[in-house]
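We include this case.
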Amino acid sequence: MSLGRTDTSTIGRWWWTVDRWTIAAIFALIAIGVLLTMAASPAVADRIGTDSFHFIRRQFVFLVPAVLVMLGVSLLNPKQVRRLGVLGYCASVLLLVAVLLFAPEIKGSTRWLSLAGITIQPSEFAKPTFAIIAAWMFAEGRLNPGFPGRAIACFLYAMVAGLLLKQPDVGQTLVITAIFAVQFFLAGLPMLLVVVGGVLAVLGGVGAYFIFGHVQTRVDRFLDPSGDGAYQVTTALNAFKSGGLLGRGPGEGRIKLVLPDAHTDFILAVGGEEFGVALCLFVLLLFAFIVLRGFARLMKDENLFVVLASAGLLVQFGLQAIINMASTLRLMPTKGMTLPFISYGGSSMLALALGMGMVLALTRKRYGDEELEQ
């Protein structure tokens, strides 16, 4: 099928307006994720006494719908993205409430909900949908001085942050807070409030240390890497040392045999041992490319909602990658957060696909009558 520039079909217009370089970079991350999941997950499956290909099959079950979701959402116009974000946020909040009421406690927290035999983590979907609805409120408040957009955005943030802390999930709350802060700043937050917000963020971090036991434990382990609780990070660092520049070779890794969560939180360590630092640097460059290219395209857009929503989604995507990689390299306390499009995890994969589909939709070039759809 040939898609010429004169093709006025939906697919044709999409092909010539969407950022194909970003799509290529995302598919490169997905391919690396498939490769590393195949490398890391059989050892994990064997340790827990299940079929060696259990996690691989489940990852493919979610991977195909995720790709379809990303490409399907990228066909939308900004108004449709906004509607999808509002509906998604409302559904996410309801599911977060359901988690607190009905979900079982696992490792001291309630984060997963089983629906029709499928386990989902609602907090993953709350992040991209919150970025959309908060951007809408900030944009409306800026464009219509009589509209209480800031107040509504603050209320929406407080509601979702409160539900996340109730689980508790401090890491996801941190990401939501970063999205909110960046959007508030871009929407015209006064410098005095920026300083106040910085002080509150520091106080919030100190408070989390004393209020949540798991946060205190992880920070203490980070500050004392020689303690018994630093086994995972120490093992991950040994994987990087074992791999060197080019790695031991596909399937030759040994750390994955003993490293807990090798297919999720510490999958980069498996890649570092088998494929070397070269692969890790390539992954880092892909994440940087996607985020920086997204912001570069935003600089050309005059629609405030598009700018705020895309900025929030890109911050979420980049920050999640930074947290995962920094935790693996012992640059910050460990946090159970997936590496976007690489780590095993159905909810994470689908939610990230939704978010990046929104980014692709919002950053498309628009001409003529498409401007009226914003």
About this structure: The longest helix spans residues 267-298. Residues 10-364 form one domain. Strands lie at 113-115, 118-120.
